[in-house]
Amino acid sequence: MITLKEALKLNKDELAKFKDDLKIKIKANSKLNAYIDIKSAGDGIPIAIKDNIQVKGWAVTSGSNILQGYISPYNATVIQKMADAGLSPFGRTNMDEFAMGSTTESSFYGKTLNPHNSECVPGGSSGGSGAAVGAGLAIAALGSDTGGSIRQPAAFCGIVGMKPTYGRVSRYGLGAYASSLDQIGPMTQNVEDAAILYDIISGCDDKDSTNAKMDDKVTPNLNPNKKLKIAILPSYLENASQDIKDAYSKAIDALKSVGHEIVEKEMMDAKFDISAYYITATAEATTNLARYDGIRYGNRVTGSNLEDTFIKTRSNGFGDEVKRRILLGNFVLSSGYYEAYYVKAQKTRHIIKENFEKIFEDVDLILSPVAPTTANKFGEFKNPMDMYLSDIYTISVNLAGLPALSLPISKNADAMPVGLQFIAKAYDEQTLFDGSLSLETALKK
Ligand code: GLN
Asked: Which of 62, 76, 156, 179 could form an SS bridge with 54, CB 3.0 to 4.6 Å?
């Protein structure tokens, strides 16, 4: 598959031919179920779009039954920015319903397969985007990351996935899961493409009040030769499998070989991240999903009166995982438990942020696992809690609002990709991309 950088040089005829071929290739690989729908919105370079990002005139459903029949009346800001740069939406990619999950198994459209092994999950919730790029069925894709949903499928599918600093990329037109954690980001074949796509979709937007009023770009200053001080987290790695530990050592050696300074640091116990995240995310999700009542959007099951219509629509339209989170979110926000759970989670979130800030007083980047294992087998998680626990390495980044980038490091004995992530200071995407490009280059040597 050509890279985004190469695609930017194609002329009109070459691009049209490329798109025709791509359509055929996607159809030939429909078993993967990476795409829900193949269609094109414009003449630009084709970019695959997660099914929770608004594209005018498209059915956009967040992988849910409740949004069947909804047609987006507008473009998300990222789609508009892409169009301005000559990129256009090409195909909707599969995802966990409302981006809740780590496997893409909870989609209304059925599961997506991992392109490296069809018995394994592609990760989630942006599993369709991960599989599309990993299988050579997309030049690049957009995903969204609330607690790891870009970085973890990127790691499982052997590609690059980047979660920007909270506020860097407009959330206008992103189907909301947990508004204080959500960010849209690029999923690409390499680090440079991620920087290019990040530059295109990021920047000022008056339509999102949490948007950072910053327009600086990383690509013009991309420098893999800058010597950085990088933190590694030996005790944090105890919960990771041997494959991940091996990749971690390999990455450290590669970083040292090109002159970066490595220092050991301690992170607080990740069990606090899980609690703070699943309370915050479900509380916000409950509030955000209240709008799906059968009246304003998509699917409706008409009941005997208005309340009955709400109940029937929501009971029929939402899947089990989404219902579980609505219940949990209502519970932690209810008057008797608000102080005990929600408020405590917010205090914990603050402590997690301070923990990162302390480490970043001394270093430029942190090197961390993305997931405790390589891609899981289908049905491997016996209960929801096991799945939630697999998010230990990604969710603190969202709680602290930081930028992070997951990149492929190696393959394990079963030829499954192993990815690791760099985490940077808030708004320091430049160092994040510089360090990532340096590691990517060093690994090729
Ligand atoms: N796996 C996490 C969850 O289910 C993260 C999902 C995401 O980032 N959208 O909430």
From this structure: 76
Interhelix angle 242-257/429-444, rounded to 10 degrees, is: 90
The answer as to whether 183 is a domain residue is: yes
3-state SS track over 317-366: HCCHHHHHHHHHHHHHHCCCCHHHHHHHHHHHHHHHHHHHHHHHCCCCEE
- CA distances, 299 to each of 70, 92, 121, 314 (Å): 8, 19, 28, 9
Alpha carbon of 10 to ligand 1 centroid (Å): 36
- Separation of alpha carbons 184 and 247, rounded Å: 27
Q: Is residue 278 part of a domain?
A: no
Q: What whole-number distance in Å separates Cα of residue 129 and Cα of residue 40?
A: 16
391 lines ligand 1 (CB under 6 A): yes
DSSP-derived pairing of the beta strands 404-411 and 417-424? antiparallel
pTM over 0.70: yes
- Residues 141, 133 contacting (CB under 8 angstroms): yes
* Cβ-based neighbour number of residue 206 at 10 Å: 10
Query: CA-CA-CA-CA torsion for 68, 73, 79, 83, nearest 10 degrees?
Result: 130
Tell me how far apart the alpha carbons of residues 47 and 121 are, in angstroms, rounded to a whole number.
Answer: 22
| Within a domain: 129 | yes
Classified as helix, coil or strand, 419 is strand
Cα of 286 from ligand 1 centre, angstroms: 14
Residue 100, ligand 1, Cβ within 6 A: yes
Q: What confidence tens digit (pLDDT) does each residue in 98-157 have?
A: 999 999 999 999 999 999 999 999 999 999 999 999 999 999 999 999 999 999 999 999
By most ligand atoms within 8 Å of CB, the mutation choice from 320, 391, 397 for ligand 1 is 391
Helices (H), 235-305: 242-257, 271-289
Tally of CB atoms within 10 A around 292? 23
Number of domains, the chain: 1
Domain that holds residue 73: 4-266+358-444
Give CA–CA dist 262/27, Å, rounded. 46
Whether omega before 125 lies within 30 degrees of 0, making that bond cis, reads yes
For the stretch 54-98, pLDDT in tens is 999 999 999 999 999 999 999 999 999 999 999 999 999 999 999
Is the residue at 390 inside a domain? yes
Q: How far apart are CA 100 and CA 284, in angstroms?
A: 12
CATH code assigned at 181? 3.90.1300.10
How many other CB atoms are found less than 10 A from the CB of residue 353? 16
Q: Is 99 in the pocket of ligand 1 (CB under 6 A)?
A: yes
